[in-house]
Recover the amino acids of this structure.
């Protein structure tokens, strides 16, 4: 077994394996999940692996983390074919494909600084998912590119 | 009407628009018949930025329906100055009034405020966003003067920040108008608006000068180009000068061209246009009263006569 294959099959005890990520998007997926390696949990990333379905795919394995619905929603926007495997005690206990939501709430920050959703008001940001991006439900601003850059700071 | 809150012209179907305009026409024809229609009704005015004209128009409309207004007054003298959220302000004021009119400098403010109140809320302008009652009075003026059939309209000036333009352009997709947009490159329609118009299947053409398209127009809608959109005075003068019209400019137009402007104007339309048959902007401003009367009457539960 080569080192490369070793990496691909390395198992995690508890956590999440995100497979079938659009090739080249793995680092954006990590950004969405707020993972930068500082927590000390092990993270494996494989990029541009051959895939029958996608041509090239990325894989992310994260020890000690399960995804929230919000994270899955944003993930689906940049990696619509992704599958999410929840691993407990080395076994995949749950396997799901992401679904493109019609709305993402409280996850992205509106880039329009004059938008009421960026103010100290008792509302969450809300974006409708449209053909080629997401659109602020309050001010109509459309975000097309670089969604991870607009993720709300926790 | 199905809508409690009037937030955006986008929410209005052609049938909604026609219903408001028809009702406004009935009111304009016989305003006395509506003088006691809403005798015990109070309209709450929340103007977070000054707009004397729009405020007067709503006040007149409510009083002509027999009701009255309660006014938050200027932001400087209110609790907003002390840092109260908009969501809190509207929840307090809805207890005083039967309907609310909100003008606020931030985009999406009316939409957000409407999520916190049970009384009908009318958006009277949210930043660079929507201003649906202006749109309705514009549509009323267009219908009265040029009609909606096979309408060709040119919209000129600041198309980037001009909220009246965005609302109007979207509403005009309901009547399949041929729309021409005339502006400097730096002030063209924002992407989100172009996207919307495209989605609605609108026929949209963009131009940087008026000359070539003027002879085709039934309506020319002129807006102000604001000094503060430009880094310096000389650049502003160079650009703005190309989007000013006078009676000489209009010699190339159709005889029955309707010239509109949301007012106030500065020098986009020379005063020598005022005395021509083209000038329709004062009539347009006056139409704000019957149109707002019609809208208030409908959201306050009056059935169109
Ligand atoms: Zn926004």
């Amino acid at each position: 077994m080569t080192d490369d294959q070793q990496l691909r099959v390395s198992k995690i005890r508890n956590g999440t394996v995100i497979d079938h990520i659009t090739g080249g998007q793995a680092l954006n997926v990590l950004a969405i999940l707020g993972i930068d390696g500082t927590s000390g949990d092990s993270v494996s990333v494989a990029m541009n692996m051959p895939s029958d379905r996608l041509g090239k795919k990325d894989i992310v394995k994260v020890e000690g983390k399960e995804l929230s619905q919000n994270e899955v929603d944003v993930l689906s926007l940049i990696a619509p074919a992704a599958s999410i495997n929840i691993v407990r005690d080395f076994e995949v206990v749950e396997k799901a494909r992401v679904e493109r939501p019609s709305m993402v709430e409280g996850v992205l920050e509106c880039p329009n600084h004059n938008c009421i959703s960026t103010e100290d008001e008792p509302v969450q940001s809300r974006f409708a998912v449209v053909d080629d991006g997401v659109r602020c439900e309050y001010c109509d601003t459309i975000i097309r590119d670089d969604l991870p850059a607009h993720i709300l700071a926790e | 009407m199905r809508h409690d809150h009037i937030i955006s012209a986008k929410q209005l179907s052609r049938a909604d628009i026609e219903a408001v305009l028809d009702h406004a026409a009935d009111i304009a024809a016989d305003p006395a018949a509506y003088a006691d229609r809403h005798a015990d009704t109070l309209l709450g005015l929340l103007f977070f930025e000054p707009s004397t004209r729009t405020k007067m128009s709503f006040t007149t409309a409510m009083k002509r329906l027999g009701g009255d207004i309660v006014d938050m007054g200027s932001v400087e003298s209110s609790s907003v100055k002390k840092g109260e959220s908009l969501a809190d302000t509207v929840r307090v004021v809805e207890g005083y009034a039967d309907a609310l009119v909100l003008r606020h400098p931030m985009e999406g403010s009316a939409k957000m405020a409407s999520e916190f109140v049970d009384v009908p809320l009318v958006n009277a302008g949210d930043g660079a966003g929507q201003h649906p009652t202006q749109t309705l009075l514009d549509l009323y003026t267009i219908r009265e003067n040029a009609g909606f059939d096979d309408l060709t309209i040119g919209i000129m000036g600041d198309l980037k920040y001009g909220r009246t333009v965005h609302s109007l352009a979207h509403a005009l997709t309901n009547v399949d108008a041929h729309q021409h947009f005339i502006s400097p490159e730096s002030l063209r329609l924002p992407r989100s608006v172009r996207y919307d118009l495209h989605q609605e299947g609108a026929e949209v053409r963009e131009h940087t000068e008026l000359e070539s398209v003027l002879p085709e127009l039934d309506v020319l809608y002129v807006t102000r180009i604001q000094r503060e959109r430009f880094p310096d005075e000389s650049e502003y003068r160079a650009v703005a000068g190309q989007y000013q019209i006078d009676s000489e400019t209009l010699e190339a137009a159709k005889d029955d061209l309707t010239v509109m402007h949301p007012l106030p104007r500065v020098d986009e339309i020379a005063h020598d246009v005022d005395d021509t048959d083209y000038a329709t902007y004062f009539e347009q401003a006056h139409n704000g009263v019957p149109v707002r009367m019609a809208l208030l009457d409908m959201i306050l539960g009056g059935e169109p006569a």
Q: What stands out?
A: Chain B is about 35% helix and 15% strand. The radius of gyration of chain B is 19 Å. The first helix of chain B runs from residue 14 to 29.
